[in-house]
Amino acid sequence: MDNLIIFSITFLVFLVLGSCNGGELRKNFYRISCPEAENIVRSVTWKRVASKNSLPAKLIRMHFHDCFVRGCDGSVLLDSTSKNTAEKDAVPNQSLEGFDVIDEIKSQLEKTCPGVVSCADIVALSARDSVSFQFNRSMWEVLTGRRDGSISRASEALANIPSPFFNFTTLKQSFANKSLTVQDLVVLSGAHTIGVGHCNFFSNRLYNFKGKGDADPSLNSTYSATLRTKCQSLSDNTTTVEMDPRSSLTFDNHYFSVLKQQQGLFQSDAALLTNKGASNIIDEMVSPRKFFNEFSQSMKRMGAIDVLTGTAGEIRKKCSVINS
Ligand code: HEM
Ligand SMILES: *[C@@H]1O[C@H](CO)[C@@H](O)[C@H](O)[C@H]1NC(C)=O
Ligand SMILES: *[C@@H]1O[C@H](CO)[C@@H](O)[C@H](O)[C@H]1NC(C)=O
Ligand SMILES: *[C@@H]1O[C@H](CO)[C@@H](O)[C@H](O)[C@H]1NC(C)=O
Ligand SMILES: *[C@@H]1O[C@H](CO)[C@@H](O)[C@H](O)[C@H]1NC(C)=O
Ligand SMILES: *[C@@H]1O[C@H](CO)[C@@H](O)[C@H](O)[C@H]1NC(C)=O
Ligand SMILES: *[C@@H]1O[C@H](CO)[C@@H](O)[C@H](O)[C@H]1NC(C)=O
């Protein structure tokens, strides 16, 4: 009898925990309603990545920006209107790209199963698929069933997207605000193994760290000399630099070796070395197997931030505007 009670309570606790952690997202949510959904997302994404190898960086970053502002609800895709400045037009938007890919996927899905697949799920799936192209298989599981939000505010992007000038304390706080751990922070920063950054996000580290024309002492001096040849002044906001030098199109764990050589591009990358716990995690990520496994789990947690499920939100007809 006692056992039965303990069992029931345990069961209920798991049920409650389960529903907080990821809501009603589930595997292959569109299995019945749109069986081809995930294939369509993958085939369009792979076609586009095949002709533009910088796309995975754009799409995974888009998913991150979507999830950190009002949860993974496709709000990053909404256009500004005469009455509202959207996330897209916020300061941290620099170089967000790939909206045309999401639109192409959406229009194919609307032909196959109109009004069924959310823009938020398309963003999550195509982030996964774009990175996975190079491996010819899915690198992490994406649960689906997200619904689309109707609010997108530039001010909220500014308040919620961590800045490249953050220190460890503020980075940790920013992730904790989204129920993500220091483990998630370190592991997900590994996404900086692909893509580029604009000079103005780090040139203070080259030319004016403490306001005295000095360099950041925590930046590898050989590397900063190379960076100074690329970013020639503090005001350069157009030149971009690979975040993982020589391997910025390959998704791997190289970012962590780069970090250990004090070659993290942003202050926020370098900041991960300033905390003992975080730096222990960096050491673990030097194993590729460990990194891929952890990355997959942290992406799942990021993809579940404040999702709208069930009857909340809507399924947008067009990803850049709310249904009227
Ligand atoms: C930990 C806090 C983070 C900070 C402060 C940060 C900051 C930045 C900044 C400033 C850029 C450069 C944008 C530009 O110059 O155009 C960038 C690029 C990028 N970020 Fe992050 N990021 C963070 C976390 C993440 C996460 C969690 C992901 C994905 C899981 C991610 C994926 C990327 C990618 C792929 C790029 C390259 C984009 C491109 O090539 O256009 N970042 N990040
Ligand atoms: C970013 O915001 C600026 C205005 O602040 C806008 O001109 C630009 O088009 C935006 N970029 C994207 C990708 O939406
Ligand atoms: C990719 O995987 C598919 C199915 O798993 C296989 O048929 C195909 O040959 C693979 N392509 C390459 C280039 O390895
Ligand atoms: C981190 O940055 C915050 C905000 O700028 C600041 O208040 C704090 O003192 C900094 N912490 C450390 C350890 O530098
Ligand atoms: C975390 O959230 C709180 C409350 O919403 C906010 O005041 C604070 O600025 C956030 N911190 C960071 C680093 O995003
Ligand atoms: C880059 O700097 C120029 C000149 O300072 C400024 O007019 C422009 O708006 C800046 N562009 C971005 C994307 O910040
Ligand atoms: C700086 O980078 C070079 C490679 O460019 C590396 O050999 C050296 O160990 C690095 N220095 C530090 C302090 O990590």
UniProtKB/TrEMBL annotation:
Reaction(s) the record says it catalyses: 2 a phenolic donor + H2O2 = 2 a phenolic radical donor + 2 H2O
SS bond list: 34-113, 67-72, 119-319, 199-231
BP GO terms, sorted: hydrogen peroxide catabolic process; response to oxidative stress
Top-rank taxon, per record: Eukaryota
GO molecular function: heme binding; lactoperoxidase activity; metal ion binding
UniProt keywords, alphabetically: Calcium, Disulfide bond, Glycoprotein, Heme, Hydrogen peroxide, Iron, Metal-binding, Oxidoreductase, Peroxidase, Secreted, Signal
E.C. no: 1.11.1.7
Residue ranges annotated for the Plant heme peroxidase family profile domain, each copy included: 24-323
A single GO cellular-component term on record: extracellular region
Co-factor binding details: Binds 1 heme b (iron(II)-protoporphyrin IX) group per subunit. Binds 2 calcium ions per subunit.
Sequence positions that bind Ca(2+) 2: 193, 244, 252
Localization of this protein: Secreted
Active site annotation, chain numbering: 65 (proton acceptor)
Function of the molecule: Removal of H(2)O(2), oxidation of toxic reductants, biosynthesis and degradation of lignin, suberization, auxin catabolism, response to environmental stresses such as wounding, pathogen attack and oxidative stress. These functions might be dependent on each isozyme/isoform in each plant tissue.
Family according to the record: Belongs to the peroxidase family. Ascorbate peroxidase subfamily. Belongs to the peroxidase family. Classical plant (class III) peroxidase subfamily.
PANTHER family: PEROXIDASE 25-RELATED
Name of the protein described by the UniProt record: Peroxidase
Native source organism of the sequence: Olea europaea subsp. europaea
